[in-house]
Amino acid sequence: MKSLLLLAEAISVITALVNGLVIFYAVPHYDLIPLALTLGVTLLVLAFAKYYGCL
């Protein structure tokens, strides 16, 4: 169970970093903004799942 929490934490951190990079590169490329929003929503879902014990 603890390994699942560590995995969820790692996924959350990696997703946050990727999301930040995508947003940084999406500013001049407006076609990438939906991808950035999708990654942001994914990060939120993972965070809620982690804190409410679903993962």
Question: Structural class, from secondary structure content?
Answer: mainly alpha
Number of extended strands: 0
Largest sheet: none
| Beta-strand residue percentage | under 5%
Entry keywords:
2 helices; 55 residues
In short:
The chain is an all-alpha fold. It has helices at residues 2-26, 33-51. It contains 2 helices and no strands.
Give the helix/strand layout.
Blueprint: H1 2-26, H2 33-51
Helix pairs in contact: 1-2
Keywords: Membrane, Transmembrane, Transmembrane helix
Transmembrane segments: 7-27, 33-52
What does this structure look like?
This protein is mostly helical and 55 residues long. Helix content is 80%, strand content 0%. It has two helices and no strands. The chain has helices at 2-26, 33-51. The longest helix has 25 residues, at 2-26. It is elongated and about 40 Å long. 5% of the residues are buried. The model has no long low-confidence stretch (mean pLDDT 76).
